Amino acid sequence: MVGADGAGSRVARDLGLDENKECIVGYEEVWSGVPLEGAPRLHCFLDSRLAPGYLAWISNDGDETHIGVGGYANAFSPREALNVFREKVSGKFVDLRGAVLAETRGGRIPVGGILRRIANRRGLLIGDAAGAVSPLTAGGLDPALRLSMFAAEIIRERLRTGDAKALLKYSGAQFRGRFISRLWMRRLITVMQSNTLLELGFGVLRGRVGRKLAEHVFFGRGSFPDVGAGKPVANLRGEAISWR
């Protein structure tokens, strides 16, 4: 059994595996017909009232425009916050005149780091169900792909050998140590509940050391470690990955 059923995984519960305890919620609108000048881009906004513990965003991929907010569910109302945010940015960062609202969507995003017990002899978890999301940035696409590659190797070994114990190699414990700094920074974010503190944080990131830190966290290759079943496999670019 492979549990790929999201942050509130029923598979995790039924298999007796670890479950996500800390989550934020994201809510966004998808608009079509929004004019785009220049290359596709992503705008991020920090506001402790409209997006407590996370951020608000505007993204345009050249086809559709996404306007959304995210944060701790007990600290804000996502629908109300999105309405306020849209009004604040409309006409300044995005032109919604003549645009059509295509859909709205939302969901829970785990930010407690990858779970320890993500497999037993009966099955395993991948993606959000395993907590494979960066605790700091809440980015999940890259971690989900890397963890799924590891899971595929483990499943192949399980089917090849017929040994159910092979699944026990698939453990989140080997990842946890790589996320200590991000987990502590997530704790820091939970207490930064004022825009004044956020501005101070931005002041630090504008400095030489702060810029290097931001580049490493948000644009470096350290968002999620490469691990695996013991031999290299190819990543999505066809390059060899040495599991460690």
Summarize the structure.
The protein has seven helices and ten strands.
**What amount of the residues lies in strands?**
15-25%
Task: Report low-confidence residues grouped into runs of 5 or more.
Answer: 231-244
Shape: globular
The N- and C-terminal alpha carbons lie at a distance of: 26 Å
Q: Oligomeric state of the chains? A: single chain
Q: Please outline the major beta sheet.
A: 5 strands, antiparallel
Mean pLDDT: 84
Count of separate DSSP helical elements = 7
Task: Give the neighbour order of strands across the main sheet.
Answer: 3-4-5-2-6
Number of strands: 10
Name the helicity range.
Answer: 25-40%
C-alpha-based Rg, rounded: 20 Å
Q: What is the count of structural domains?
A: 2
Structural class: alpha+beta
What order do the SSEs take from the amino end to the carboxyl end, as H and E?
EHEEEEHEEEHHHHHEE
